[in-house]
Amino acid sequence: xxxxxxxxxxxxxxxxxxxxxxxxxxxxxxxxxxxxxxxxxxxxxxxxxxxxxxxxxxxxxxxxxxxxxxxxxxxxxxxxxxxxxxxxxxxxxxxxxxxxxxxxxxx
Length: 107
Description:
Layout (H helix, E strand, L loop, with lengths): L1 H21 L7 E6 L5 E5 L8 E2 L6 E4 L27 H12 L3
Antiparallel strand pairs: 1-2, 1-4, 3-4
């Protein structure tokens, strides 16, 4: 597990280094654009204060800046309707964990 984390960090550092060399030492964000006509998605690198007119690589029509896809993970209690209600015969999570562990690893 630790080795995968180290590889992940090294990949990020390497990608930032390559991007830094590619842009001539100026770090700029990469934006996702979507063509209004054909729906082709592509990326363009430009400064945050710039608002360039970006045209599709395939059909040449105007492209709009797309919203990035971000993974969201809801963890913990309170995200489902059944989390807010406590049943009278509820079992605590520590008791559930003990039951699972004893089932998996009997002594």
